[in-house]
Structure formats: C-alpha cells, structure tokens
Amino acid sequence: MSQRLAKEYRSHEKTLASDKSFSHVVDLSPVSDEDLRSWKATIEGPPKTPYEGFEFQLELKIPQRYPLDPPQVSFLPRSTPHCNVDYDTGRICLDILEKDSWSPAWDLLHVTHAIWLLLANPVPDSPLDVDLACILRANDTSAYNGLVRYYLKDESRD
Amino acid sequence: MKPERYYSLQMNIHRKNRLEEQLVSVTDPTDFSRTLLPQMVEFDTLLRCHICKDFIKAPVLTPCGHTFCSLCIREYLNREMKCPLCLVELRESMLRSDFLVSEIVGSFKSIRAELIKFLEPGKCPPLDAGNQQGGCGSPIEIASGDPVEGTDENEQDEDEDDDVRIISMSKWENDDQQARQHLFSSPSARKRQRTDSPVVSTIDNMLVKPKTEAKLADAQCPICQRYFVLDYLQRTHLDECLNGIAGNVGAEEPSGSVATRNPVRQREPATETLSKPQVPKVDSEQFVIRYLESGQNRNFNRLPKLNYSSLSQSQLKQKLLALKLPTSGSRKQMISRYNHYEMLWNSNFLDSLELVDERELRRRLASWESTHNNSGSQTKSIISTMMGGATAKLKDFKNDRFDRKGWMLEHRHEFKELIKEARSKLGKKEEISIYSNHTELSQEKSIEFPQSQGSPSSAQMLPQGSQGQRENN
Questions:
Q1: Domain tally for chain A?
Q2: Whole domain around residue A113: which residue ranges?
Q3: For the region Disordered, what residue ranges are annotated (chain A) (predicted)?
Q4: Is residue A93 annotated as part of the catalytic site, yes or no?
Q5: So what's the ipTM on this one?
Q6: How many CB pairs under 8 A join A and B?
Q7: Is the distance from CB of B83 to CB of B62 less than 8 angstroms?
C-alpha cells in the first residue's frame, strides 16, 4: 500500500510538471517526505466562478486500507465558502469520497480534480452549508456568487 | 551554523534519502516518456493493475472485460461487490484467470529495463556503414514508410508498398539487432554476422516470405512455427504439436505424418534469433512454454468461503488449525485472518503461474496481519501474554499519555532483577578478561579454555604450556 503511494508520488510529480490539463492543480505532494499518509494539495479557483483568482488548500489523509478505502479530504477550516463544504471545519460532501461510491481505480490526483470540479459545480441538493444552498435553490446565482466573493475577500484580508 | 540548525539539516537530508530509497524501486509508465518511443507509456500503463498501480500479478478477467491483480480485486470485492472501473456488479466467483496477460506482463517486465536503456535518446548506438540513416533516426521514423535506401539484396527484390513497410521494419530489426549486438558482443562478431550469417538471412526470410506462403493458404503453427494447410493445422496438427511440446519441449518433429502431405518449412531458427537480442533465450521461451502449460498441474482446490454465522468458535478454530493458521485473537480477527488467507490461497493456486507453497502463503499472511489485522488489540494481546496481564495500562504504551513513572514503580522489582542479572554477566566478562591478561595467576582457568574449544592442536599445546608454567612456578 505504501508502494502504491510511492508510485502515485512519482507519477503525480511528473504529470503535474508535464500535463497542461492539470494546470489548475498547483501542488499535490506529501506534507513531509517521512510519511506518505498525509498529503497536501493546492488548487486554483476555477475560471468564471467567484473562486477565480484564489487558491485553496486541501488536506488529504490516507487511511490504512487505501486504496480500498477512500482518502479523507478537507479544505482548511474557514477557507472555502461553498454549499457542499462545511465552512468551519472544511469538510467536503462529495460522493466519491464516501466508501460506497469510491473506487480503488481512482487516485489522489483524480480526487483533487474532482474537488476542483465541485467548486465550479455546486450541488445544492446535498448541502453542508444550508444557507448557501438555499440561495442556490432559489436560483439566485448572483447573490450566491456575491456572498462567496464576500467571504473570500473577508478571508484574504485577515 | 548553529548546532541545532545543522542537526535539522542533517535530518532533512536523511529524510530525503529515505524517500529516494523508497522511490528507486518504483517503476512508472512515464519512465518511457523521455525515450525515443514515448508511445510506450501507453503500453506500460495498460499492463498495470488499476488498484495497486503496479504490473498486474496473476491477472484475472471480469465479465465486464477489465483485468486486475487477482489479490487486489479479491480484496476489494470482499468489501464492495462491483468493478472498480465501470462500477458494474461483480462477484468473486465471476473472476477468471488470464494466463496470457500474465505472461505478456512477465515477458515485458523482463525486458523493460533493457528497453528503456536501449531507447534512451542520445545513446543511440552507431549504425552500420551500409545502412546509414543519418545519425540517430528513431525506429518510428524508419518504420513509418521512409524511402528505403541502401537495403540488402533480399529486400530490394520486393516492390510493393506493404512490403516496403515490412522491409523497413525488418531493416530496423536488422539495425536494431546489430545495435544490440554492438552492446553485447565484440566488433568481430558483428562483422561476421553482417557479411553472411544465418542470423540476418533468417530474419529477412521470416519477414519477407510469409507473402508467398500465404498464397498457398498455409498458416503458421504458433507452437512449432512451421507452415501447414489451415484446415489440417486446426484439425489435427495443433493437438499433436501441443502434446508433443507437453511431453518433450525440445521436440523437433512432433508429428511425422505431416511431412507426407505438406512440405514442412523449418521456422525455428528465425524465432530464436529474433528473441535472442532482447533477453537470454531461456527467458523468452520460458513465458511461452509456461503459458502453454498453464492448464496443467492445477490440482489445488479453491479454498471455500465460510459461512461464519453458522460456525461456532471451536469450529472456526478447527478450520484455521486445519490450514495450520494461528487461532489467537478475537473471533473477528480469526474471521479476517481466514478471509485474507482464502484470498491469498485462491489468487496463488488458481490464478498465478508462479506458485508458492503454503508456508510462503502463511508468511505473507503474517506480514499482512502485522500491518492490517491488529486494530490495536492484537499487539496488546501479544504484549500482555509476554508481560502477564496489565493490558489496560499498556494501552498507550507508545503515547505521551503513558504513565512511565507509575510503570517503573510498579515493576521496580523486575527491573532490579534485570539490572542484577546484567551486572553479574558483566562481572563474569571482566573476570575472564582479567584471567586472560594475567594467565600465570590462574592456571585452572587457562586450562579450561582449550578444553572448551576442543580443537586437537590446542589440546596438544596445552601440556607444554602448563608444563612451562609449572617450571616458572
């Protein structure tokens, strides 16, 4: 299993350096070289969304039985306003991160990419941030975008 | 530089090295991306299991057409009954072993390192003067239909487009082979080969002739490489040939009756020479033969799944004992132990062509258990049996919360015993060294040593030595 993580480390390193289609993933690497069970990732906010121009940090914890079990991924606490993200803890609601939908054929780069897609495509039907989801359900996109923007600017000022 | 800073720097270097060490053995499809043939990345990727990302070991095929390592997919199906790639429902009983993929992977693995070395840009070996293509042309360029110049006599006979392609390939094979020969043999050997060697001519023959032979509606036997009328080949020859090979690997003439109807053209030398430059001959043949014989020697039974809910504790223990597995731990641990052993067993005896014995399986089970099946309580129970109870206190043995002072107080007698024992041992050692330094002080001791050694020479020496000492006294 650590063999698999070592392989991922090598292949992600090369993919990120060469593959332009993953240019929105700024960084994906282990927190320390000692321990491959704890990774960090940085993704750019998707273009044409209120997240554009901001960078988001992810924490990836690899369980003992990875890849049979999915990695545990979260944003940094109080960094990401999104209807599928718990703002205070950074917890992410995404089906492929649950045991039932996870597939061992996916890897950490897939997961990071999926979360980047989630940023651009919020799913208000399974919310972790009810207020933002309510606004989206009312189809008030401009209010949603404005609120997200406000949160983000507020965050970056601190 | 401050000492701490220096120390932390040293630590960093150390860490880096550890990861590097780990990564040295890691192969990756992108190893090919900087070679002359970057397309090999795809090929390499296809031969890997999507669960462990390594080359497929003992491949199994799912009904949905996907291939995984036997052990990987069995482990996954134990928790989720679906294909990891297409998410279609899948059960363990649906898996079928795929020996051909197994041997393709094995064969590729055996030549991979060499292939990468050979395809390294800038390291292109010099081509022969007659076949000069202008420096380091990559094989693809040559094969993709460049006008062929300065070819061998054999090749110039052909003029069709298709053949030009084949020839250019054969030419590449030719160059390729010479290049490899260049790596492996002396220049004189190469020269001999170029002028009039059977090696070159058989390659040319093999790549050029099939056209003429195809006109006679002949087909090549995949086993003995000879040509027969298709009908005959399918009906009788294949069986005969297979039997012949199974009985005697090196059999040159598996079926004598063939010659009466069909002119038999010997093809064996050609295949040999083709495979020779890549790997030692034994290896390249080995994968083919192992594949052909893969149906035999399979007299091991599938280890059945158990219905745990209907098994009592003692019945479960009996099942484990029958397989010579340990019966320690909780019921849950025993169940997961049996489950994992069943997977190891089935993937080894049903799907693998490199069988290992049961002892090796048990060793693998033990190493798996040390990392996966402990869930905290297993290690505890081992320590507790060694220490005789006190499990609750050992819970946080490696944590900061562990009460070290309390532990030391509680076990101070044991610790004292240990220290006493260690001191007495140390004292004995000192005594011995004193004796050996001042031999004249202790005759008895010096006599003891040669006796314990028991070698005849020292025994002979002894009387003289002791005599000498007595004289001294």
A1: 1
A2: 2-157
A3: 1-20
A4: yes
A5: 0.75
A6: 63
A7: yes
